[in-house]
Write a structure and sequence with these properties.
single chain, alpha/beta, 6-stranded mixed β-sheet, 4-stranded parallel β-sheet, 37 helices, 39 strands
């Protein structure tokens, strides 16, 4: 290796005549400064400086230590003497006289990413050259479809959006690299309440009053389209490829028509019906909500009440035990518990579990100190579940004495008096939902305000009472004292007070529990019976579950999460009371309110929508919305005002996009956050099965949420929100908010375990940026070493490569196989881990060991071309491996290759597999040898480090390695590869000895190390059979003298008098490079020092 740690003074340069010096110096400078030619016309605008200087390589820790200060462009720089000027009189540090004969890396691929400028330029180059379009239009290629779940078009993007879209791009780009025809159609959800609210917030009160449905719709449309444009630009900046000029929007007429067709098919299949039943209702939004539109924040506290419902005297059911009839003589009351006192006006029954036992208990007194509200119950008899007697006694602060216990079935048939209204209602058998986990074991049943209550009401013909209006206020049906009061506020308190005044209130206490909130307004919801349109999930549940069982889930736990949601789902309320949405195409008789909707009306309205959009439902005359056979009924009909649930909008996208645009159906994959198990995944499954008979996807991949680096949820109030734009472009202060670029953001996504919640913060981003720079630096160094290499002319056939080179290719093949598996199974963190491991092998082992060949050998020498052949094969594979994750860097590097690669883009080139001979050509025995050899290399390095610490050695080439292997076969294998091992170990000589003592004897016992059989087993290598197997290594000063150019130690320096301090190899190369150069021995003492 070449010595450059100390530069040769200019006075030491000697040539045939001194007059030749300036000429030679100028010639060398000119040759080195020549720009590296581009290999293609119309090169990318982001191309930068052509040459890699030794100094910049040193900054990246890529060049060998003794080469880092060498400048190939200078030989003679000054006359003898230090001169004056800068440096405070110190002599100027001189350059090595042999520097110009060393082949330092050279590449157009810059170390500085400059992502703020380069990434947009690369994206523009992709667009100009239609790289994505070429892939999307591949003829005869297998199609791959990842169908995009539409984000909501109502605000700025957050880091969760970036995680989602970038993961999708990983999937798509990998499939592109594998030769698939990939067309990704991004989409937006454009209807619904959030956009309506944005519009209403933007206008004053008077304007709101004058706002007709059609005016509201036009404003909502404009807002949605403006938001789509803004979000689209951000998504593109992430480096995400797709049909950005032709996305799908749920407000487009062709999409709305497809959605209406899905609705119509479900209706005609018998899976859509209209009925009055309790649904989640948002008083703050004044509309019904689907389960997916609810959230359950922590910290909700309800006012719960225990209430006594007195049994009607004299009405004893036949099943009640006669021997306990006396307990009823003095009167008894059913004790019920509820967290929604406001539902008391709608009470229609008390439900019991006929499989539980119930106790009649006498309240004999109070327990504990102080007067309690429950003391009014002293002397009364109450009925509670036997298993809860002790619990309620403690809660109420009362002493209870059991009078008798009867089965739940014995209570069925009793009647009780409603304490607020005096009406009699029955005790019924509710079912298994009644347990002794909480409450009293008797359930206050209001069929108009609860799903289980509703089902019980249907079973026993109970009245469907729901005296609450759209705003959540009590109606006149609730009676005096309640009308107009809010059920969630003063109306609730009024109900409690009425119970108290009627002496029916046992106890009121706060109860902390999960309660549904409107996910948009962040306010509590209620259950309320209204006339709505429903999808009858019960009618196709088994088919949906059967389809779900065919789906592949990533992670697999998603199946366990989603299946119970579908199996336990109630009928889906698909109607909403809003203006901004797709109308349910139903007409109603003005007098009877009977609906008119059939195949003819649905098809007629659908075709109108296809050409005019859904605004036509509000704009056209009613007669024009009717098919011919119904036009004569126009005067007796009104059009419906309900719109479809936005989850029905997005849940129909398989029809509005995948099928209508000719993509692969069912789609290969849906990929969204884990919350979509109850959202888009489920609505798509239900519409797909109900309308088309199958699930619209074959695989579901889910990711978690993004938290800050301390694990906290991001919020503006905490000041921990991270804007992806800021990550990419940086902030005003680039020191505190640096621009990391899209590829660094993408590398962060790849490095996370996205299957659960992931963390992000400035420290994490800095670490990711460091990893990006290391990867870029490794690529740059690799490419710099093939700057004068053309594989078509210079590649060495595989069977002519040295064993160590073939081992590097075997490792490359193993890496590619692991990468392929990781990409195929969406384990992107494994991709980044494999990249880190493989580039560490390259930097620390293969490239380190190959620098002598790459820098010092003859430019066209076989040994150098062998190394370049391997490096080029590795570069080609690394670029395809990196491309899905860091596409900008991969494309930039690909276009900087020093030869024409045969394709315009790395993505058109695609995935380059390992050649079969890379595995077949090196058996496990030979590969195992090199694994063992590299372990021995580690021990040699350890011994050299000891020598440095002891001031015995400096550079590794000053060392001679002394090695003993107890296993004869291993010893023979190493001896037969002595030259390759010297290169791999980066030592000047290797001596194989026959005993441990020979090692310690040769090295003085200081610089020694060893591998035992036990250590070898742990490391997964073989050093021979038996527990006593050992490899002993040591290092000592190498024999001979130091070559002034390559720094190796030799016993035969000076084979040519012109270069007395060079080894034979370097002498030949230097004379070939510069036949005029002479360096007398007396002038080279400092070089060899």
């Amino acid at each position: 290796m070449m010595a450059a740690g100390r530069m040769l003074a200019p006075a030491m340069c000697s040539r045939a005549s001194t007059a030749a010096r300036p000429r030679v110096a100028v010639r060398l400078m000119g040759a080195t400064a020549a720009a590296h030619p581009s290999h293609r016309t119309g090169s990318l605008a982001f191309r930068a400086s052509p040459n890699v200087s030794a100094t910049t390589i040193r900054r990246g820790n890529l060049a060998p230590a003794h080469l880092t200060h060498t400048s190939r462009s200078l030989c003679v720089v000054a006359a003898e003497g230090g001169g004056k000027g800068k440096g405070k009189g110190k002599p100027k540090k001189e350059d090595n006289v042999y520097g110009h004969t060393v082949l330092l890396p050279k590449t157009d691929f810059e170390m500085r990413a400059n992502s703020v400028t380069k990434e947009p330029a690369i994206q523009q180059w992709w667009a100009d050259n239609k790289i994505y379009e070429q892939i999307a239009e591949r003829a005869d290629a297998e199609m791959f479809t990842l169908h995009d779940g539409p984000p909501y078009a109502n605000g700025d993007l957050h880091i969760g959006h970036a995680l989602n879209k970038i993961l999708k791009d990983f999937v798509n780009r990998y499939q592109m690299m594998k030769g698939k025809r990939v067309r990704y159609v991004p989409g937006w959800d454009c209807h619904g309440l959030p956009i309506e609210l944005k519009v209403l917030q933007s206008i004053d009160a008077d304007a709101r009053k004058a706002l007709t449905p059609i005016k509201l719709r036009k404003k909502a449309r404009a807002f949605a389209l403006k938001t789509v444009d803004k979000q689209r630009d951000a998504f593109r900046r992430y480096g995400v490829w797709g049909d950005w000029e032709d996305p799908y929007l749920t407000l487009l007429p062709e999409y709305e028509a497809a959605q209406m067709e899905v609705f119509g098919q479900m209706f005609l299949n018998g899976h859509v019906y209209r009925g009055k039943k309790p649904v989640h209702w948002s008083p703050s939004s004044m509309t019904a909500l689907a389960e997916a539109e609810l959230e359950y924040p922590e910290g909700h506290v309800s006012q719960s009440v225990y209430v006594a419902f007195p049994l009607v005297s004299g009405s004893i059911p036949a099943g009640f035990p006669a021997e306990h009839a006396s307990v009823l003589e003095a009167g008894a009351s059913l004790a019920v518990w509820t967290t929604t006192p406001w539902t008391m006006p709608a009470n229609a029954a008390v439900a019991v579990n006929d499989k539980l036992d119930y106790s009649f208990v006498e309240v004999t007194g109070t327990a504990g100190d102080g007067e309690k509200e429950s003391s009014r119950m002293v002397g009364k008899t109450l009925v509670v579940a036997q298993g809860l007697v002790a619990e309620v006694a403690k809660t109420w602060g009362l002493t209870l004495e059991t009078v008798c216990t009867v089965p739940g079935s014995a209570l069925v048939g009793f009647e009780y008096t409603h304490p607020m209204y005096g009406r009699a209602s029955p005790v019924v058998a509710g079912g298994d939902y009644i347990t002794t986990d909480s409450g009293t074991g008797l359930v206050h049943t209001a069929p108009g305000h609860g799903q289980e209550d509703y089902m019980t009401g249907l079973k026993f013909g109970l009245p469907l009472l729901s005296p609450v209006d759209d705003k959540g206020l009590f109606t006149e049906e609730a009676g005096d004292g309640l009308v107009g009061k809010s059920v969630l506020k003063d109306g609730n308190e009024a109900c409690i007070e009425k119970l108290r005044q009627s002496d029916a209130l046992i106890l009121q206490e706060p109860y902390n529990h999960k309660y549904p909130y409107d996910w948009r307004t962040k306010k509590p919801t209620i259950f309320r019976a209204t006339e709505q349109w429903f999808a009858s999930v019960e009618g196709f549940r088994e088919e949906a579950l059967a389809e779900l069982d065919k789906i592949e889930f990533v992670p697999a736990s998603g199946a366990k999460r989603m299946r119970p949601m579908v199996s336990g789902r109630n009928d889906w309320c698909i109607s909403r009371q809003r203006s901004w949405g797709v109308p349910i195409p139903c007409f109603y008789d003005k007098e009877t309110k009977e609906p008119l909707m059939d195949k003819a009306t649905i098809e007629h309205v659908t075709e109108i929508v296809r050409t005019k959009g859904t605004d036509a439902w509000w704009e056209l005359e009613l007669v024009d919305l009717l098919p011919d056979q119904y036009k004569d009924k126009a005067d007796s009909l009104v059009r419906g005002t309900d719109t479809m649930d936005v989850w029905f909008d997005s849940g129909s996208s398989w029809a509005g996009v995948v099928k209508s645009r000719g993509l692969k159906y069912p789609a290969d994959m849906y990929l969204e956050g884990s919350d979509q198990h109850r959202g888009w995944f489920q609505s798509s499954l239900l519409t797909g099965v109900a309308a088309a008979g199958n699930a619209p996807y074959e695989k579901i991949l889910t990711h978690g949420f993004v938290l800050d680096e301390k694990g906290y949820k991001m919020s503006k109030s905490l000041g921990n929100v991270i804007d992806p734009r800021l990550i990419i472009e940086g902030g005003k202060n680039q020191k505190t908010e640096p621009a990391f670029g899209a590829d660094t953001l993408r590398l962060w996504v790849a490095s996370t375990d996205y299957t659960s919640d992931v963390l992000i913060g400035m420290n994490i981003l800095k670490q990711t940026s460091d990893a990006y720079r290391k990867l870029r630096g490794t690529l740059r160094f690799l490419m710099g070493n093939i700057g004068d290499f053309d594989p078509a002319a210079d590649a060495v056939p595989y069977d002519q490569l040295p064993s160590f080179d073939r081992y590097a290719l075997r490792r490359t093949a193993d890496m590619l196989a692991e990468m392929d598996r990781a990409y195929e199974t969406h384990q992107y963190s494994q991709v980044t881990a494999q990249l880190q491991s493989f580039t560490a092998f390259l930097s620390n082992v293969y490239l380190d060991a190959s620098k002598d060949r790459l820098y010092v050998e003859s430019p066209t020498g076989v040994s150098r071309r062998c190394a370049q052949t391997v490096v080029n094969e590795i570069v080609t594979r690394l670029l395809c491996v990196v491309a899905p994750i860091a596409p900008h860097m991969a494309e930039e590097a690909f276009t900087a290759l020093p030869y024409k690669p045969g394709h315009e883009s790395v993505f058109l080139q695609g995935w380059v597999d390992a050649a079969p001979e890379w595995t077949a050509g090196m058996d496990d025995v030979e590969a195992g040898f090199w694994a063992t050899a590299l372990a021995i290399r580690g021990e040699v390095n350890r011994a050299i480090e000891t020598g440095r610490n002891e001031k015995i050695l400096g550079a590794s080439l000053e060392a001679k390695a002394v090695i003993y292997a107890s296993d004869a076969a291993l010893a023979a294998s190493m001896a037969s590869r002595e030259e390759e091992l010297k290169q791999a170990f980066i030592v000047s000589q290797i001596q194989f000895v026959s005993s441990v003592d020979d090692v310690t004897g040769a090295c003085g016992g200081q610089c020694v190390s060893e591998i035992t059989a036990a250590q070898a087993k742990l490391d997964g290598i073989s050093i021979g059979d038996g527990a006593d197997a050992i490899v002993k290594v040591g290092v000592c000063k190498a024999d001979g003298a130091k070559c002034a150019r390559c720094w190796g130690y030799f016993g035969d320096l000076g084979s040519d008098e012109r270069h007395p301090e060079l080894c034979p190899r370097c002498t030949t190369i230097v004379i070939e490079k510069d036949p005029e150069l002479r360096v007398p021995a007396k002038k080279t003492e400092e070089v060899a020092a």
